[in-house]
Specification:
The protein is of the alpha/beta class. The protein is built from 11 helices and 13 strands. The structure holds nicotinamide-adenine-dinucleotide.
Length: 324
């Protein structure tokens, strides 16, 4: 199988390409535009690690450029596309909605079109828990209400699901959407809380806790996410006709305060916490139901948040050469 992973220099894309490229039955192609939404060196370092594997080819391509994208897919006879490239981040979407329109609307449309034209056998794409907005019934199931996005990011992900559904109905394009819930782990994103809190402790800066730290998040360790995607890639039954959606979550929400206490304990450092009110776009709680995922993958040994934090801090200290 020849697999294209978009957003391969990103956090989840990097881990996914590492795992896929260790399987001899796959040939892995990665594309990314290496944008500067966060530290480009982190993206380049991820790519450096990926280039050490024999089974991985990288090309710098922007999803917005349909001709380059389509040609690359055609030339490399891609069978499966895993679309992770997107403008991520809830808060930034309130500042710069146009970035989301480009990558998440136009870019995703180009992925659908290129998939249709090149007869892609299975398109797997990243959606997000943000599509659920502020829901009242937990845990959130794949068929829970998703028509009240609180941010333009959430709107872009919900729109992707509807676009994929329509390509499935009209052109029979087989696709699976993955609603990721707060994925964290080594080589994680510097704009997300775990990285930001470690930076604040390391550089002795304030930590800002929105909604007074009362937010609850269904933190999901990156290795668990990658294992789930690998099983979805391998077990997919090509006779299935319908577009499917899975929650990718550990079904174990924790408060930001609990999260921070664990980080401070393991980092062996403390810093000043500034409590702020809830921000526009933020949802109060994410808590996903993962029964459909477990039923399909049989994967149920999710990494505890405590263990995941220890692994992230080990990586952070090595990567930033922190000595204590
Ligand atoms: N990490 C999470 O907790 C989380 C949660 C929900 C959904 N998601 C979704 O999962 C996917 C991967 O997230 P991530 O955390 O790895 O984010 P990331 O920002 O680390 O990775 C995305 C990658 O896509 C690339 N990219 C962006 N726009 C592009 C374009 N137009 N053309 C080509 N490349 C482009 C970026 O350079 C980046 O390397 C995204 O779609 C994101 O919205 C992530």
């Amino acid at each position: 199988m020849r697999i294209l992973v978009t957003g391969c220099a990103g956090f989840i894309g990097y881990h996914l390409c590492l795992a896929l490229s260790s399987e001899s039955s796959f040939k892995i192609f990665g594309i990314d535009n290496l944008n500067n939404y966060y530290d480009v060196n982190l993206k380049k370092n991820r790519l450096k690690n990926l280039r050490k594997t024999q089974n991985f080819i990288f090309k710098k391509i922007d999803l917005i450029n349909f001709n380059n994208l389509n040609l690359f897919i055609k030339k490399n006879k891609i069978d499966i596309i895993i679309n992770l490239a997107a403008q991520a981040g809830v808060r930034f979407s309130i500042e710069k909605p146009e970035k989301y329109f480009d990558s998440n609307f136009v870019g995703f449309f180009n992925i659908l079109e290129a998939s249709r034209l090149n007869k892609i056998k299975h398109l797997i794409y990243a959606s997000s828990s943000s599509v659920y907005g502020d829901n009242e019934n937990y845990p959130l199931k794949e068929n829970s209400e998703t028509s009240n996005p609180l941010s333009f990011y959430a709107a872009s992900k919900k729109t992707n699901e509807i676009m994929a559904e329509s390509y499935n109905t009209i052109y029979k394009l087989k696709s699976t959407g993955l609603r990721f819930f707060t994925v964290y782990g080594p080589y994680g994103r510097p704009d997300m809380s775990l990285y930001k809190f470690c930076d604040a402790i390391h550089y002795k800066k304030n930590i800002y806790l929105y909604n007074n730290g009362k937010h609850l998040r269904d933190f999901t360790y990156v290795d668990d996410v990658i294992k789930s995607i690998l099983i979805i890639v391998k077990k997919y039954d090509f006779r299935v006709k319908k577009h499917k959606i899975f929650n990718i979550c550990s079904n174990n929400p924790k408060s930001l305060k609990f999260f921070l206490r664990n980080i401070e304990k393991n980092f062996k450092g403390k810093t000043k916490v500034v409590y702020l009110k809830k921000q526009k776009g933020d949802v109060y709680k994410t808590h996903g139901d993962n029964q459909n995922l477990i039923k399909f993958t049989k994967f149920k040994n999710f990494t505890s948040l405590e263990e995941g934090i220890v692994r992230f801090i080990d990586w952070y200290k090595k990567y930033h050469k922190v000595r204590y």
